[in-house]
């Protein structure tokens, strides 16, 4: 069985653009957002194919939710604009382990 691509922040901005591109390419997706109405609208815009698309109301700042989803799906692409502040190399080791080697929290270099 093909794993699903999990995209947080999938109802606006870069997250939505990534989700739409992946859906257009035929990927199996779990799209995540804190906003259930925006999540439903985005799923509808993608065609609502329940065999390939799944929506999940999700809070990327909740470590238990992140860990549970990462264990179940394997990889999370975090495009929420939230996460560790600063360079990825300084992110907490636990956060790196939860999100895996291929996806890290969005980092910000504000003020540097």
UniProtKB/TrEMBL annotation:
GO terms for cellular component: membrane. The keyword Phosphoprotein does not apply. Keywords: Oxidoreductase. InterPro entries: NAD(P)-bd_dom_sf, SDR_fam. One of its GO terms (molecular function) is oxidoreductase activity. Belongs to the short-chain dehydrogenases/reductases (SDR) family. This is SDR family NAD(P)-dependent oxidoreductase. It comes from Halioglobus japonicus.
């Amino acid at each position: 069985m093909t794993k699903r691509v999990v995209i947080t922040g999938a109802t606006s901005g870069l997250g939505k653009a990534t989700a739409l591109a992946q859906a257009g390419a035929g990927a199996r997706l779990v799209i995540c957002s804190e906003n259930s109405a925006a999540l439903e609208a985005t799923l509808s815009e993608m065609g609502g194919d329940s065999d390939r698309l799944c929506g999940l109301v999700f809070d990327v700042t909740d470590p238990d939710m992140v860990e549970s989803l990462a264990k179940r799906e394997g990889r999370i692409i975090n495009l929420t604009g939230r996460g560790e502040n600063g360079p990825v190399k300084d992110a907490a080791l636990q956060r790196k382990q939860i999100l895996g080697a291929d996806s890290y929290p969005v980092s910000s270099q504000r003020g540097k």
